[in-house]
Amino acid sequence: MKKTTLTCVLALGLATSASSYAAGQSIDSCVAAVQKQKAGELIKLEKLNVAGKPFYELEIKDSKGAEWEFMCDAKTGKITETESEVSSADDEAFKKNAKVTEQEAIAIALKVYPGNVQEVEYEIEDNGDASYELDIVNDKGHETKVEVNAAKGKIIEASKEEWEIGEEASAKK
Fold first, then answer.
1. Residue 48, Cβ neighbours under 10 Å: how many?
2. How far apart are CA 33 and CA 56, in angstroms?
3. What pTM does this model have?
């Protein structure tokens, strides 16, 4: 898929959103907050519902090709979580803390959120913990992102996807 520039994604996000002016301001605030932390190309923007609260997940590819995810509170424009992505569960930064296999993580997530796994990402949390982020689509076509701690095998976060713009070339399906 063709890479999307920050300007295009931002314009698409604002154009496709039926939200008020304030929602546009929060996207701007989130983009600005991410740019302060990490320079790079915005490759994906998602609107998520996390326990009834709106969040944006912004994915950035830096100049070295590394991918980063930022969770941003859609109401305040504040970054609440930063994670780096690695290409596989065999990456040293991931493997050193992982005790749960990808298949075990999938089974854990599917027990609580039945459906089909569409994508698996391997993430390193701010504190160094490894986690699997699974995109699961249920029989009604709704997507849930489920994050499973790779050391403990516990679900640490789940969110419903409301919309998505862009896609990573490295998405694992």
1. 23
2. 12
3. 0.83
